[in-house]
Amino acid sequence: MSLDVPTALLERAERGEVSDAEFVECVRNSLPYAYEVVSRVAADLRSGTAEYADNTIPPPDETARGQLLRAMASDAIRGGLERHFGIKLAFQNCHRVAAFPLASVGGDTYSTFISTRAQLLNQSPELRNC
């Protein structure tokens, strides 16, 4: 299960739409490691001058790795986090999450990061089963 959804939030969802803020709070509580990684790369992007900010630190354990994979694999979770932080996320492997300014989508740096070439060059034997 990806998210631990409080009963009250589930009931609101059954009656209609829930706000992004409610959804992101559920993600933050359910997937704290994933939320922290995205929050950190978003903050690094805002505070720096680089074209993007990325996480290159492997998760501390399988639970954390699973949280990050679930967050990045879900269009709803990933999209909610992107809207919340005002960024575009890119994901290369079990831990390499990058935050890009929305304006960079389609630009050279973003396109290079998400390219098949970059994916191949980012591989290593120790990441094979990550």
Automatic annotation (TrEMBL):
Q: Which domain of life is it from?
A: Bacteria
Concerning NCBIfam families, the annotation shows: SCO5389_fam
What is the designated name of this protein? DUF222 domain-containing protein
Q: What is the lineage of its organism?
A: Bacteria, Bacillati, Actinomycetota, Actinomycetes, Mycobacteriales
